[in-house]
Amino acid sequence: MTPFARFPFLRYVICLIVGILLAPYFAGHWLGLLVSLVCLFVLYLFAFTKFSKNLTGLLGLLMVIGVGILVVDIKKEILFKNHYSDFTDAKAIHLVEIVEMVEEKANTWKAIAEVREVIKNDTIYSSHGKTLLYIDKKAERKPELGEKYWLINHLQKIEAPKNPYEFDFRRYMELQEIFDQQYVRKGDFLYAGETEHKSIYYYAMLLNRYADRAVVKSIPKKSVYGVVNAMVLGVRDELDSPLMQAYSAAGAIHVLSVSGMHVGIIYQVLIILLGFIKKRKSRWGQTTFVLVVLSLLWFYAFLTGLSSPVLRSTLMFSMVLIAEFIHKKQNTYNTVAFSAFVLLLWNPNFIFQVGFQLSYLAVLGMLFFQPLLVKLWITDVHKGFHIRILYWFWELTCVSVAAQLATFPLTVYYFHQFPLYFLLANPFVIFFSTLVLCVGLLFIVIYPVIQLFNIYFVLEYIARFLEFLTDLLNLSAKMTEKLPHSMIQFLHFSKLEVCFIFTLLVTIASLWITKSFVWIKSSVLLLVILIWIQVEEQFKISEQKQLVIHSIPKGHAISVLDGTNALIIGDSSFIENKKEIGFRLSNYFSEKGVKDTLRESLLQTNTIRVLTYQQHKLLYIPFRLNKLKVVSNVIFDWIIIGNKAIRKLEDLEGLKYKALILDGSCSEYYAQKILKQSEELGVKAEYLRYSGAKVLFGK
Question: How far apart are CA 280 and CA 285, in angstroms?
Answer without folding.
Answer: 6
